[in-house]
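Structure ticket #2291
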Amino acid sequence: MLLLINAVLLGVGLAMDAFSVSLANGLNEPDMKKSKLSGIAGIFALFQFAMPLIGWFCVHSLLEKFKAFEKFIPWIALILLLYIGGKMLIEGIKGNDEEETPALTFTDLMVQGVATSIDALSVGFTIAELNLGLALVESVIIGLVTFVICAIGLLIGKKAGSKLSNKASILGGVILIAIGIEIFIKGVF
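Resolution: structure written out below.
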């Protein structure tokens, strides 16, 4: 029972960055179809599921190499989110002659998935005392929690995005840049 509670709490904590990015994605694409919404939430959930397991594996096999990499995590997240957020911000400021805002590409989603889940690598340290089976269960729960939270973020963003029209891309870009800065500040200081 304690494992379940711990996994849900970890999932909620880890999913907050992905929630904010999902909100921005929903703002950017208010006409998003349910299948795409599920796919985006699924990508974030997949990364949040995989990263703790990768961290667990690193602890059990590559600890010293991972420790050296750990100090770069905030920098990587900052750069990735500045890139995607900056791209959205520029597109929003330029405006489109067309009514549609540019849809997220698969590459954009992969970058967002890595940027919002890279801090979950360190969760591998906190679950290192678990055997592989329990670490897998914990990671599955984290992924499921992330999926639900991101789907909610996308739905809220879609609702607000349809009301904000052209400003949605600007707001979404600002949110992504702010998340990147927040991850960086938390990770460095």
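Closing remark: The mean pLDDT is 84.
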